[in-house]
Design a protein that fits this description.
This protein is α/β, with parallel strands linked by helices and about 325 residues long. The protein has eleven helices and 16 strands.
Length: about 325
């Protein structure tokens, strides 16, 4: 039976980190022609964060271990481990603090609603917890970390499209979902957005839509260009967040971003990772990346906000927030 004691809290991402966990793009059969580019983008992220954060990087297989060590040198600790793919925000543990220290919250994983079921993705969270020396509290329902945004004071922001999707937990009502979230996270308030980005295979992960930057303050995107495919969604999100009583700041979206076949991809400047001293923002070779980075810099005056190209990583379905999971200082 899952441990449902309510003595835990989830620190906000801007709280001091003991480490940031992530995973090196390791599987050539998954990344294909984007492997080299994904590794270059990953390395750029690590170098920015490593100036003030301890990076713990999983690598799967001899080639991946060797290439990670060659690319990153002394920037990070490379840890051999089996995993399906690099999206540790979703497959890794969510670290929580308790009166007795840190715990790793672990949830069931079904490959983002059965779409991408890979060997090792259901167990890599245990490997991270073991390497961190952190006890596990286990829950039986399906949940990905990118589906939730925490404000550090017991409020969770999420989407109905993802959390109430029957491909995760069949027949969950909103009331049932809130019950399970309270049991796992000791949250006192759940705020619901409706839908995620167009063509987002995660079914609406909130870390592509809106992010807490203070207890009652969020940042989300405004449309860029006349052909932004998510223009109406961005307006709906901003209005919904304001109606929740939150202070809302807008930054430019990447606009319309397409893959080599012309299909719209879920590019988002929201998928940034907050480090101890740096914030790494994904950009996508559009004219709006610099403006988004500059806008975030004004909101994070104590951090160095840097934009890093993430087009190759996005080919796998996510970006810098998706591939990281912070371990807070207790």
């Amino acid at each position: 039976m899952a441990d449902t004691r309510t003595d835990i809290s989830i620190p906000p991402e801007w709280a001091l980190h003991k480490a940031i966990w992530t995973a090196w793009p390791s599987h050539a059969d998954l990344w294909e022609e984007n492997l080299i580019g994904a590794r270059l983008e990953f390395s750029a992220m690590v170098r920015e964060l490593a100036q003030a954060d301890t990076l713990k990087i999983l690598a799967c297989g001899e080639e991946a271990i060797a290439s990670a060590q060659a690319a990153l040198g002394d920037c990070a600790e490379i840890i051999p481990a089996a995993f399906g793919d690099i999206w540790l925000r979703d497959t890794g543990p969510i670290f929580a603090t308790t009166a007795d220290g840190l715990v790793a919250l672990r949830f069931a994983n079904n490959g983002w609603g059965g779409k991408y079921t890979l060997p090792g993705d259901d167990t890599v969270g245990d490997k991270v917890a073991a390497a961190a020396g952190t006890p596990i509290r286990r829950f039986q329902f399906v949940l990905e970390g990118g589906a939730l945004e925490h404000n550090g004071s017991g409020t969770i922001l999420t989407t109905r499209q993802c959390l109430l999707n029957p491909n995760r937990n069949a027949n969950w009502s909103q009331e049932q979902a809130e019950h399970y979230l309270h049991a796992a996270f000791n949250c006192h308030r759940v705020l619901w957005l409706e839908n995620g980005l167009l063509n987002d295979h995660t079914d609406g992960h909130v870390d592509n839509l809106a992010r807490f930057i203070a207890t009652d303050t969020v940042v989300c995107q405004s449309a860029s260009g006349d052909d932004d495919p998510n223009a109406n969604l961005y307006a709906e999100i901003a209005n919904a967040l304001q109606a929740m009583g939150l202070t809302v700041h807008l930054i430019p979206s990447p606009g319309r971003v397409s893959d080599d076949e012309g299909e719209i991809v879920p590019a988002s400047h929201m998928n940034f990772i907050i480090g101890n001293a740096a914030i790494v923002v994904p950009t996508y070779n559009t004219t709006y990346g610099a403006a988004a980075t500059a806008a975030l810099q004004k909101l994070f005056p104590a951090h160095r906000v840097v934009g890093v190209e993430s087009t190759h990583l996005l080919s796998g379905g996510g970006s810098f927030h998706c591939i990281t999971q912070q371990e807070p200082v207790v």
